């Protein structure tokens, strides 16, 4: 029946998708109800194919961002020893959120919630000269935190996926230059995701250091509150505002204008650590004939948290509205009835050759009505839906639906390629 130009095994068919098809009852649990994730237990989630595709798209953008600052990807062990955490002093100060365990020899370990200790100890073992600096290494991997009250699905769980970058410089001046460079790369990353964001001054907290910034999406689902001045560039986390005593009465300390307060979701964090870890873990380099601790920075992005944050920020009454660059698929091709399947196949092939086969999906399910399929497409939030029907066979016209705006465009196949590639994708 199917007569694709390409090998059929390489075609992304919706019928092969491993997901749920029930209409969600609660908009607050869209990711679970639509089969992007599955809750294994409180605070622990399995990523299903749709959720994994979104995560992979976010990771690709992260990798491009890290490449722009010359960072190399590594993969650090999930298990970390009590000894290295004792050297930094965080074994005791981390409290009950640290997952602690023992191996069969009674050696005390933890499941790493972050990797400052381990990466610093690793770098200390082979840095011998200033010529090896700067060093910038990052990883994308799972982290663990024993949350007392997991909530918000992927927003706050016991196990999560995070990107963490660690930088090592010879002195404070170079470390500050690195910090500014990475903040610039973060701005480019969040712009590529395609949603408005805010960078705010932040508290260094348990990680330590002398300077910190957070990246936030404004959302009623968020547990944080950020303060932004409408008149100048001042912005900060409300917790830091309280701790420092600045902006009492919600006024900006710079221009005295009233600060705008909004709920938000933290999705990124940057720390200029200085020598806090390197001095305790022996990460030194010779400077003017004496050993000096390296200057460090660490920079995180909550990968799995971003999936939930984006869903919360963009969802509407019809379902999810994924930004193009992180959508599980950018384009869905839907025949208006199964008798137009051959026409839909030809449109799929033509568009796939332009936008890439990994970005396009074909609606091939025969057991559902056209109305059901269109409602399902709105729920999932594909950025663009191409409808192929009688107009295509008669006039070579397709109808393109833009999920974010609700716009509809009737276009010939040749123009469809140009519009998708140039204006939409």
From TrEMBL:
> Which keywords does UniProt give here?
Aminoacyl-tRNA synthetase, ATP-binding, Ligase, Nucleotide-binding, Protein biosynthesis
Q: Which InterPro entries match?
A: aa-tRNA-synt_IIb, aa-tRNA-synth_II, aa-tRNA-synth_II/BPL/LPL, Anticodon-bd, Anticodon-bd_dom_sf, Pro-tRNA-ligase_IIa, Pro-tRNA_synthetase, ProRS_core_prok
Query: Has keyword Aminoacyl-tRNA synthetase?
Result: yes
Task: Name the Pfam families on file.
Answer: HGTP_anticodon (PF03129), tRNA-synt_2b (PF00587)
User: Per the database record, which ranges form the Aminoacyl-transfer RNA synthetases class-II family profile domain?
Assistant: 51-323
What the entry lists under Gene3D superfamilies is as follows: Anticodon-binding domain (3.40.50.800), Bira Bifunctional Protein, Domain 2 (3.30.930.10)
Instruction: Please list the GO biological process terms of this entry.
Output: prolyl-tRNA aminoacylation
GO CC field: mitochondrion
Enzymatic reactions? tRNA(Pro) + L-proline + ATP = L-prolyl-tRNA(Pro) + AMP + diphosphate
Its Gene Ontology molecular function terms?
ATP binding; proline-tRNA ligase activity
Task: Give the EC number.
Answer: 6.1.1.15
Keyword Ligase found: yes
Task: Name the family.
Answer: Belongs to the class-II aminoacyl-tRNA synthetase family.
> What name does UniProt use for this protein?
Probable proline--tRNA ligase, mitochondrial
Q: Which organism is it from?
A: Schizosaccharomyces octosporus (strain yFS286)
